[in-house]
Amino acid sequence: MRGLGKYRKIIATAGVQASTTGLGLISGILIARTLGADGRGSITAVMIVLTVLSWLVFLGVPNAGGYMSTRTRTPVVTQAAATSVVLGALAGVVLWILAPSVAGDYPEFVTHGLRAAAVTLPFVGLGLCGQEILYAESRVKSWNVLRIVPLAGPSVCVIGLAAAGQLTAPHAVITYLASMIVYIVGGTAVLLTRTAGSLRSEAYGALITYAFPRWMSAASDAVTARMDQLVMVVLSTPSELGRYAVAVTVVSVSNPLSQAVGMMMYPETRNASGDRRLLHRATRRRAVMLSAAAGLVVTLVAAPLIGVLFGPDFRGLESIIVVLVIAQVFNDRYYVDISYFAGIGRPHILIVPSWITAAVMAAGLVVLGRGGLTGFEAASVTMTCAIVRCVAISFATRREERRHPTVDAMTGGQAGGRSETVD
Hints:
The chain has about 425 residues and is mostly helical.
């Protein structure tokens, strides 16, 4: 029954990924056909900035709060919530000030959207804390319900606006921000069931001890995952960014199941009582095979139909899609590594490979973008860095295994062994 429960969780998570991806594809088609490449690029500019900042500015604190949650009220969760609000507020102030410069050549509503995102940022950390608690406690149903809100909410609203003939770029941005507010409320409700006591210095020390190494890897991963689009906001045109965003959306259709396999690696590792290294390797192989098979289908079937589905502005994206599919396979493999090392409490192993990748990607995008960054150039850098990161983590993993022959030696006996909660 335990094994069946694991697969039910993977299938449920893959179902959420597939449904949100499908809704995103439909809404992306509607935006593309209604607003063109310029409109899609303007919407992406707001969404990508808030997304990257949400991953970046909280220094791994929400993840640490979830990891240290004991399914009871605890001061460390209170500390995580308070710290997240402060970090989000600082980032929000900076974004508010820089919004006009970031928006640059974009329509005026992009500046307003970025400033609305700045106001939202202090509270996003509360939502993330709640989500990480559900994830760490393996409450997969509740976790999926919460995380689907900012993923599917905007797409559902866009479909409704298009049906009513009211779809505009500002309206699309508003729906995204509104969905984030609903997510914050839901995550905060979960968080309040785990907070306790006043802020304590010892709780803060324990929090940062876990959070900072995790953030050192996760921050670079977050930036790398969206750095291509983030740099294109500044170094490309709204039209080119819009075309590239459509290619990214199409490629995302290939990975719901492989990504679900990687996501479930974290709670599986924390709760496993057997050989976690064998589990890690088997899961990584499974993710790669699923990603490669789905990517092949997308390349052969979906890529030739882009012009028909999205409109004439988006013809000629086939080469970009092929490159991004290859990158996706390596990224899905690495996602399993992220979940595994976080699950055994050794996230610092990811730091060097992650930052090497981020540095290579930033340098590549800036060098190629001196005369204006194209979608194919951005995709090529993304693929190269995905390969570099997997090679680097393989070296780091082998070195760590030579130093620590068993996972228990690696973790000091602290990994795994926790009971599951199925809700």
